Amino acid sequence: MTSAPQYPPPPVAEPGAVSRLLAGILGVFSAALTVAGTFLPAAASSVTVNGRLQSSFSVSAWARDVETAPQSEQDLFGVSHVARFGIPITVAAVVLLIGAVLVFTRARAAARILLITGSAGLVAAVWTMSMDVSASLSFEQRTSVVVAHYTTGTGFWVMLGGGVIAVLVLALAAFGGGRWTAPWTPQPYYYNPPVNDEPVIYSLTDPAPPQSWAEPPAQGELSPESEPAEEWTSPPFPPHDVQPAPGVEPPGKHRDDTDT
């Protein structure tokens, strides 16, 4: 009795594919947001004395933009510069962007390393910039004569949003649980002859069972299976030891012939 043939189970979805793709897509958005935010004002300041505006300027991650200020302050601003947080933010964003692009290639091990490094560096750079902006807000002062007002700018919130996305990228890349070292492919199977009417299925990841093969015949010689079979020859009919029936002349003798 022959049983129904057995087939290998269908391949399952690639493990970790969703977390890896999300890390790559979010990495691109995080890098783009933080770099764009470095060119926008991260903080702004204005000082009013007796109701008259004395100075007003904004600060980005690269430079200071002075709208109005006394000459003494303008001279000071001309020989000084702000903390250029744009340099570490841009470097970390470039590393993160390269890792995000490599996610969609076969270099997944390098992609994971660059995603973790870039996102961690970007979070650290944005956090440091946020501490500097938070320190500037502490200079807020309101008196009957002087009003010094400090506020956050658009660039601060844009960079902060990019940093939050970088935290998600860091979590997906570090704890996503997917296969990052090598691309996943469905495992094929091969079959051996059935044993007790049951086919034996092996995965290619397992060592192949030993196989026995017949030795090929030497050149110029025929194997027993390929040798021509001997032709069967029928005996003469009728045999010599068989007497003919009554009234039937034996073969080779005519009835008109007489015995001598």
Summarize the structure.
With 260 residues, the chain is α+β, with helices and mostly antiparallel strands. The longest helix is centred in the middle third of the chain and has 30 residues, at 108-137.
Would you write up a description of this structure?
By secondary structure, this protein is α+β, with helices and mostly antiparallel strands. The protein contains five helices and seven strands, in the order αβββαααββαββ. It is rod-shaped.
The DSSP helix count reads: 5
- Helix-strand category: alpha+beta
Dominant shape: rod-shaped
Major β-sheet profile? 5 strands, antiparallel
Evaluate the radius of gyration: 46 Å
Give the terminus-to-terminus CA distance: 72 Å
Strand content: 15-25%
